[in-house]
What we know:
With 536 residues, the protein is mostly beta strands. It has one helix at residues 532-535; strands at 9-13, 17-21, 32-36, 65-72, 75-83, 91-96, 99-104, 164-167, 173-174, 182-190, 194-202, 210-217, 222-228, 240-243, 248-257, 260-268, 279-280, 288-295, 300-306, 317-323, 329-335, 344-350, 355-362, 368-375, 386-388, 393-400, 405-411, 422-427, 430-431, 435-436, 444-451, 455-462, 469-476, 486-487, 495-502, 508-514, 521-530.
Amino acid sequence: MAKSGLFRVLLVSTSGWLLTLGCGSRTGLPPGHVLGAAGSEGGAGAPAEPACNSDADCPQPPPGQCGTATCTDGACALELGPICNDGDPCTVDSCTPNGCMFLDGRVDADGDGVFASGTTADPKAALGCGKDCDDTSPDIFPGAIELCDALDNDCNGVVDDGAQLQLASAAPTRVSPLDADHSGPAGLAFDGESFGASMTTYRSHDLPSQGQFQQLTARGQLVGGPQVIARVNADSYGGALAWSGERYLTAYQDARQAGNYEIYFDLLNRKGERLIKDLRVTTADDYSMRPSVVWTGAEGLMVWEDRRFEDSGGTSAILGQRVSLDGQQLGANVRLSPVGVPAENASVALSDAGVGVAFVTLAPNDTTSINFMTASRSLDAPSPLTNIPFENADAPTVTALDDEYVVTFDQFDGIKYGPSIFGVVVKDGVMGLPQSMTTGATYAEGNATVSYGDRFVMVWADTKDGNYQLYAQSFDKKLAPISPRIRLTTTKSDTHGAALASSDDGGLGVLYTDDNNGKPQTFFTRLDCTPAFQLK
Ligand SMILES: [Ca+2]
Ligand SMILES: [Ca+2]
Ligand SMILES: [Ca+2]
Ligand SMILES: [Ca+2]
């Protein structure tokens, strides 16, 4: 009996004799013949049971190696053949009676004539077998026309490259209800079919404020009426919004706890109907406020400003919380900003590497500055702070681009705004020089952004054309403008305070405040996308 040293025969004694052939070594078996015979190492007296009744009972060759297992007279035999591996990840290697076979494993499942990067076994695997960056869509392959669809059609790594945005021809839509005394925007997200808008609405000066949700079509028409998010008899605010792919996540503050603002979390369907009982996220002394929320693809991340440490001699701080898609807190509140650094008014953006967080710090002389930090998607591993050396910097917005973050911000000395919106690039913890991104106005405020990966669109309000009006412009990763400034509003009253969301037709929804002669209301307008091939 030829017997491999790696081919172990396991003998177990129980009430009778049980002889079992152990598994062969997973790797390294040389070609050859091994045999396990029933009773060959049996003990005294007891009759041996056969090791096998059929070939299938016998140990098979290890993965990747050819061979034949046979059962003869109750004994297993394994004839090992060659190891079939041509070293090409794009072939399917298999055994034949005469040796090996290597078949072309490339796949073009969407029929656009370009192979997927992986093989039939896993078309998405990054094996370099083909250059179709999405083998489920015939509209996506190298050389395809780049359409306005929020997708990278030509597989160059850039979404909707060369496309330009213009103000839609439709008039703005009033989103706040007609019985609102006044209202302002809070959050905007696109759910694949429609926009969800959240706002804070005051029905009169005697009634508490309400957080409301309003569904709009992709073109900006109202769908149904507003939904009240928190049904409480206390001031409640509209929340930040994120779409998970199946439901909205929203985070907001309200004063139901005896006037002490706490952070709450809700899940909503497309219509804004609540799917859970409000999840209270903070139980803290003093205020918790101004939450933002992002969806990582696996869970929700909330970030807010918290005053719980001030009564014990600490400072205001930025905290975070992970939440699940069924409305459960994952872990506890996490302090993100370091001890001893006053921190408020945070913005958060999600990148492949983690999250970028910027917040405002008030200095003892009452001037503000902005600090930036990163953390993992689990909100641990906080980085050291990067301080942006700019006096009276306020209202930061973080934008995640391919391999860097941009922080845009206002300049505000507590009385008046500066003439520009400013921005700075932070890459690998190294900060560029803060620079002016807008020109021509006396006052500018209220920056908001949307990332397109290699570039971003900023919407802000300034007085270039007289009173505060909203403008949009695209910028590259170095903060250089790559589109003209587009005027979004033409109203006698000021407009400002935008929340943004891109839609799957490459357009951009803008939710904003129209001051409306002292009775501000929430409005929606949008930018339409024109693809590069139509611009030529
Ligand atoms: Ca294909
Ligand atoms: Ca394709
Ligand atoms: Ca592209
Ligand atoms: Ca596209």
